[in-house]
Write a structure and sequence with these properties.
homodimer, Four Helix Bundle (Hemerythrin (Met), subunit A), mainly alpha, 58% helix, two-stranded antiparallel sheet, globular
Chain lengths: 177, 177
């Protein structure tokens, strides 16, 4: 058995789940904005520090980390959908989340055969490479969860009522025998 | 090949690295506190929302998620070190980080043979179980990065100068051939 099935679970199934959870954060934010009579754009532009990304940019970056993480691990960089980072509204950022979830669902487990050993690069690395396993473990996973968690933190700090269940989503518990 | 080597990389090598990075956040926080003449305890008790964990509790929980994640995946719950959640000072929480890093380093890759298929439970699940793979992918990883990232967010929000490099740590780039 190669690591392909576990890599698929980590970057396809689980990232699609977390992007759906991020959509659920936005549902709660939308309810909060309606109740408090604040413009949703205020929340989408909120940030925790002046030199940190806004909520909107955190979501864009979570999307790109998932999309390009899966694409690069599978050696399929060229077919990842392009997003122009021009979203301004809730509807636009939800469309991006949906687009990335749909893209992820196009990867079968065997797309990641040999992914752990593949040499991976990206434009800003100036030709340097990581192994697929290093890229997955030390780059894609910590970055992806960084942006999802920071989106959560921005909303919690602004008073939106999110809990750990919304962050983690449902877990496939099996009842005791 | 079983998934044991990849699981080891995810929860031993990488979690130990991230806990060291969390130590580096604290180094920066300590410098910041000295410069601004604020008591370090103010930062350790800071939180982003009144009903969210403080920085201190985020670090404790990151430690426990790493420690118990590795222990349960390896079927060795009984030998995880116990921490009483009584840390108040920087020295005490650094000692906890060091203790968990040392504990993690005691796991060899083959400790995770069969881990993906093992049925895992914990006290609050009332006897219900997840497979090892579900526990790793849907519980341990998102929770661990949640607490490390929230610690980072609390410090950034308070003005401590952290960057993505401190969060990710060094990456093992290989130069282009």
């Amino acid at each position: 058995m190669s690591h392909a099935p576990l890599i698929h679970a980590l970057v396809v199934t689980q990232f699609a789940k977390m992007l759906a959870n991020l959509g659920a954060f936005l549902d709660e934010a939308e309810k909060f904005a309606a109740e408090k009579k604040v413009d949703m754009a205020v929340l989408l532009q909120a940030r925790l520090a002046p030199d940190q990304f806004s909520l909107m940019q955190q979501i864009r970056t979570a999307c790109d980390t998932a999309k390009l993480g899966a694409a690069r691990l599978a050696g399929r960089d060229a077919d990842a959908p392009v997003h122009a980072d021009t979203e301004q509204t809730l509807a636009e950022i939800r469309a991006r989340l949906d687009s990335v979830v749909a893209y992820l669902k196009g990867f079968a487990p065997d797309a990641f055969a040999g992914a752990a050993e593949r040499r991976i690069t990206q434009p800003r690395w100036a030709g340097k490479t990581l192994s697929g396993q290093e890229f997955l473990v030390e780059h894609v996973l910590p970055n992806f969860y960084f942006h999802v968690t920071t989106a959560y933190a921005i909303l919690r700090h602004n008073g939106v009522g999110l809990g750990k269940k919304t962050y983690l989503g449902d877990l496939p518990y099996r009842a005791a025998a």
